[in-house]
Amino acid sequence: MQDPLPPPPRLAAAFLACAVIAAPLAGCGSSSSSARGSDPALAVPASAAVYVAAVVRPTGALQTRARAAGRTLTHQADPYLRLLGALQTPGSRALDFRRDLAPWLGARGGIFLSSSAATARVDLGPLLSLLRAVLLPGSAAPTFPFAGGAGRAGAGQGAIVLDTTDPGRARAFLSAQAARAGARGASYRGVAYEATGGGLGFGLVDRFAVIGTEPALRSVIDTARGGASLAHAPGYAKLLSVGPAEALAHVYVSGASAAAEASARGGAAPGPLALLTGSRTANISLLPSASSLVFDADTLPAAAPGAAGGLLSPGAEAARAAGELPGESFVAIGFGSAHAALSQYARALRSLGSLGGTATRSGGEAPGAGISVKGLLAATLAPVSALTEDSAEARRNFQSWMGPGALFASGSGLLDLKAGVVISSRNPALSRAAVAKLALKLRSSGASVQPVSITGTDAAVTARLSGLPLALDIADGRDAKGQTKFVIGLGEASVAAALAPSSTLAATSYGGAGMVLGEGIQPALLVQAPTVLSLLESAGLGEDPTVAAIVPYLRLLSSVAGGSRSLGGGVERFRLVLELRPS
Fold it and tell me: What pTM was computed for the model?
């Protein structure tokens, strides 16, 4: 499985995948369902790497919002019924909610994943497949998420855990599913269950119906017999206490698991957990409505001082940096530490670039004649990689002066496109010298680099890199407030827009996004999805294999906004608001 890939639309899609998989029946509930039910986290082991929980039979206003969001996303009258396929284990007949589940299903359900002992990775592939199945027209029907890896050596473990209102009927359902899968009777610590030769388990543990890999089922039994449960884990309990009470679903990510994954991968591209949270423990809540999806990602400090914070930790400096970008920007991403953030984005985008081959423009041009996203990424990442390189030279020449920064793209189309990376300098002399030093690094890697004069800058060069049809201009100058900024821009106009914009986001759409985010949160992330989609398509890149997987999600969105604030007690909240295109 390839790792999920940020930034915003795909990153948000990864959040949504986790929430949607746990709520296959949202909107199918009835007023007679229990309002709360028992929390499945009571039966989930505290060591779980990822835990996804949902109100699977919502009532009242929550049911209305869940249905409205599902219909807006899918344009279907019964948007969640397809997700019943998540419970169709091998050999199962097609499930009917009223016949098979309504007689015994409680109000709450969950899924937990454990990382592979061999690789420390958590396989999110099945969850993402279910996301595509429920959101994208024409996609394959969803399937049981644990069928493929149950018996595979080194695979992670996991299970679906559902609250029940009638344990007897729940047991009958489990037995019927087990029989169709060819399972045989088994027992562990006095609890009878059924297991297949391929490693799947079916069992009723206390009042919870459990279907998943056999080791995961056994871990639920261990928890029920007195083992440490996730519900009573300090980090989980603290984050759940500050999370929004009206959430339809929430996703818990163990900081220890993310840190282990990052350590196991070494210098490779970060895995999905480390990319999102660094090594911090996080809980991401979903609040749906007819016009938007709101994700509140609450995080605890990393156990190790100075550990990477992940993409869910922009901070106040990130919002200020985003607010200084050109007011017409359709993409704006601020970050508090340029070195740390750019390193994460570079590694993630390198992973994205590895997925696609060369795509040509529509019109039958020969391979190599068209523009590919893979080539564009490789070219634009060259200077960023040099700046963030893990070496004493890079730390001395570049990272020593880097302050907060931001990425932006502005304009209405290809002809007036402006884009760049803007980094505030903590030492003007060092950032000015860095222009020539970066030019030397690029020249040594084969780029054509020449000095250039740009109004308002103290040092500037222009670089032509293979795969990029336009020159990159690299400059160090001062903005209208006298702040020194280091800019890598797509041509001279991009540098000028970064240093002397006609208006800033803080004075235009920034304020509107702040109202959307609420809670006094200032935006650090803004994306106008239709403009991004139009730009990709006008450049002939909509079907490029590197971005083809992102395009369907862009079609669902009108805008994305994100920002953060402190909740006190060491808890930080990053809020992401996805405004949906109307049906």
Answer: 0.83
